[in-house]
Write a structure and sequence with these properties.
The chain is mainly alpha-helical. The chain has one domain (3-155). It has helices at 3-38, 43-66, 76-103, 107-119; strands at residues 147-149, 153-155. It has a two-stranded antiparallel ribbon with strand order 1-2. It is flat, with a radius of gyration of 22 Å.
Length: 157
């Protein structure tokens, strides 16, 4: 197996793992919104709570990256490059945490709309609907287009 093939396989595995984590996070976020709604917390406050938790997770990654150091015994030029890269990544993670804490709004309401839509009875297919009756058209707006609910429903980007 060539190094290129090994790198592609490793990258594919990494992408699959990240996709799995994103999938799980979306499901957990949805469950969190449901739990917050069940105890009477409104959409706006639920968005603030979930955004704060997500920003905290990114801040944790920032701390982990910021505290990393070059391998022991590295040459000074390598260490300088390492630290420059760490500063760049940490700065980028801080910006992500800031944006997540302030801009992630509307997701709780979107989740509630999706649940309401999924709980409605299934409309007959156009072949089953009487010719003189038009089936109603519904629009569901989703902020997070990747969503999984239950074993059969999947909306993907």
């Amino acid at each position: 197996m060539s190094t290129e093939q090994h790198d592609a396989d490793a990258y594919g595995q990494e992408l699959a793992a990240i996709s799995h984590h994103q999938h799980e996070a979306t499901s957990a976020r949805f469950t969190g919104f449901q739990a917050l709604a069940a105890v009477g917390i409104g959409h706006e406050q639920a968005d603030e709570i979930v955004s704060a938790v997500e920003a905290g997770a990114v801040a944790g990654a920032h701390t982990w990256i910021s505290e990393s150091s070059a391998p022991h015994g590295s040459e000074p030029r390598f260490e300088d490059g390492w630290h420059a890269g760490v500063r760049d990544v940490a700065s980028y993670l801080r910006r992500i945490a800031d944006r997540t804490a302030t801009a992630e709004r509307g997701r709780a309401a979107s989740s509630a709309m999706l649940v309401a839509h999924l709980q409605q009875p299934v409309s007959p297919t156009p072949e089953e609907a009487p010719a003189d009756e038009q089936a109603p058209v519904e629009t569901v707006f989703l902020d997070d287009l990747e969503f999984v609910w239950g074993p059969r429903i999947r909306l993907r980007r």
